[in-house]
Amino acid sequence: MSKYVSYNENNELNGFYSKDVHGENIPENTISITETKWQEILENGSDNYRIDLSLKKVVEYIKPLEERILELKANKIKEFNQHAKQELTKLDWKVLRHIEQKELQIQTSLTENEYQELLQNKRSIRDKVNNLETIINTTTTVEELTEVTW
């Protein structure tokens, strides 16, 4: 079973072909790969490989440090935003209950001071995630990024 991988102008992988499926309709910008290499690429993701045209083979691609740092920053920000969202969600039902109780003109479960404290807690969570994002965006090394924690 012959496998082929196509590539673009940046030597990035962008498609697989097989004689069994595609017959002779395999583009010119492909190289032959083994079944083992095909499985490896599928398991590890094609972003981690490039075509070395001088060797006519697929090679592991190590992203430039700047690109890895940008990815780490984006992942860290996403992680903190998800954490903040979870924390805010835990408090939202109390805010909604308080608002509904006031609208219905019934006794509220929270005093006005407790309600204000709850709103301040929500604001603190938002401020914290915003501050962490600012810190993350100003880091320049992997070491600095790993030191930024919730």
Structural overview:
57% of the residues lie in helices and 15% in strands. Helix 3 (65-103) runs antiparallel to helix 4. It folds into 2 domains: 3-60, no CATH class; 65-147. It is built from 5 helices and 5 strands; from the N terminus they run ββαβαββααα. The longest helix is centred in the middle third of the chain and has 39 residues, at 65-103. With 150 residues, it is α+β, with helices and mostly antiparallel strands.
The order of strands across the largest sheet is 2-1-3
Shape: elongated
Rg for CA atoms? 26 Å
Low-confidence stretches: none
Based on helices, strands and strand pairing, what is the structural class? Answer: alpha+beta
Provide the helix percentage: 55-70%
Chart the SSEs and their pairings.
Elements: E1 3-7, E2 13-18, H1 19-22, E3 30-33, H2 35-44, E4 49-52, E5 57-60, H3 65-103, H4 112-138, H5 142-147
Antiparallel strand pairs: 1-2, 1-3, 4-5
Helix pairs in contact: 3-4
Attribute tags:
single chain; 150 residues; alpha+beta; 2 domains; 3-stranded antiparallel beta sheet; two-stranded antiparallel ribbon; 5 helices; 15% strand; elongated
